[in-house]
Amino acid sequence: MNLIKQTLGRNVSHLSGVATYRLVCIAFVLATMLLSGCALTTEERFLAMKQDGGTQGFTPVSFGAAPPLVGMLRAQKSTQNAPDNLWVVIEGDGRAWLNMREPSFDPTPVDAAGWRLAKGISKSTVLYLARPCQYISQVELDACSIDDWTSARFAEKWVGRLNAAINEAKRTTRAKNIVLAGYSGGGVMAALIAARRDDVAMLITVASPLDHAAWTTYHRVSPLTGSLNALEVRERLFRLPQIHVVGDDDKVVPPVLLQNFLRAYPTDAPAELVILPGVDHRMRTPIDLSRIRSSRSLLPSIDGRDTYP
Questions:
Q1: Can you tell me whether residue 91 is helix, strand or coil?
Q2: Pairing of strands 271-276, 242-247
Q3: Which residues are bridge partners to 62 per DSSP?
Q4: pLDDT digits (tens, 9 = 90+) for 18-33
Q5: Any idea which of 35-49, 161-175, 186-200 has the lowest mean pLDDT?
Q6: Which residue from 132, 178, 134 is spatially nearest to 155, judged by alpha carbons?
Q7: Topology (CATH) of 39-304
């Protein structure tokens, strides 16, 4: 910061906090050429994602229009055999609110935990899906309303559109089945989509408030009117293999909410709750979801049972 003041002059001290932050980001980008930490606009954040993903075999994809759903796809390199599974990772709610009272005007995440999870999946065909109205231009964003990332963030229209995008990606990759995963609100979306498909091999949620009515009640905030609730389709998930991951220090989605959601499952349901010690809602710890799936017999289940002995 002192270097910036020396470079720009003493008047920098009179700038607003937002303006100062932007100057810090500009200086950092110019100095390090790393956009991902200090992207100043939605377009720059998506550009950083494309550059980052390009080094790992991901290419940008877009589904539909007005507004489009965007994401990143890493297809299997070999064209001889179709992949058994297409891994789908759905992003969280992003920057839905500026604070407890003010909604954001752009829900694009500043710290995209869902994207980190997607990149961490090893040796698989992976589709990362941003949530509706994320990572799009201002012109495209005009087709959205604030309800689309606040009270109606899980509306039927968005569940249907995400499901259609997954169908298109499955056709493109010729995958046989889907492994559905999602971070935070993306896990709610994943559960809602899983309940209406017959090709889901597994459901994985990470820090996800599956019963959002219980979640809003817990935090004493406005209910998500206009949104579907995974609680309403929970019985359709009973026989689907699933793992729900949450941090022990998560204050946004505390483990008790997941425990309450899973308590109604049959005792022989193939469902597990994994609580990560010392991890909060940001999920900064590296997680390879494919390893969690393959080693699920070693993970604790709800009520201390070993679902897979």
A1: coil
A2: parallel
A3: 70
A4: 444 444 444 443 333 3
A5: 35-49
A6: 132
A7: Rossmann fold (3.40.50)
